[in-house]
Design goal:
single chain; alpha+beta; YaeB-like fold; 4 helices; 46% helix; 24% strand; elongated
């Protein structure tokens, strides 16, 4: 068999394999609502979203004072940036994370201070900086 036929068979098989993998891997990910998070920011936000979420009294008051609501918090936990330089990730107890982002109306910069316990997440403080 000449090299042209070998190359043609190889490329045809590789093309079929790529189509097969694309069809089955994207179908499984979409049907199971799977997100592939490999970067640290994405992994932390995914972990924070996956646990039961609670508000401290201080944070509830700060949300009301600044005109924010739970939709803003959900948006920040979806699209925010974790500030690892301020966050305390090395402790044995609950870890503290600072999540930065903008409110849904894009008028204020918001920083959430979250305590990540083993079984829950507590919003401790909300810091707002108007643009």
């Amino acid at each position: 068999m000449s090299i042209r036929y070998r190359l043609a068979f190889y490329l045809f098989g590789m093309f079929l394999g790529i189509i097969f993998l694309y069809y089955f891997l994207t179908g499984k990910a979409e049907s199971r609502n799977v997100a592939f998070c490999y970067l640290p920011n994405c992994r932390v936000l995914k972990e924070l979203r996956s646990k039961p979420f609670f508000y401290s009294e201080q944070s509830s008051e700060q949300l009301v004072q600044n005109g924010l609501d739970s939709l803003d918090i959900k948006e920040l936990l979806q699209e925010g940036d974790v500030d690892f330089s301020k966050s305390d990730t090395k402790t044995k107890g609950p870890r503290t994370y600072f999540v930065n982002g903008q409110s849904k109306d894009n008028k204020t910069d918001v920083t959430l201070v979250l305590k990540n316990y083993r079984e829950k997440v507590v919003l401790n403080e909300v810091q707002v900086n108007p643009n």
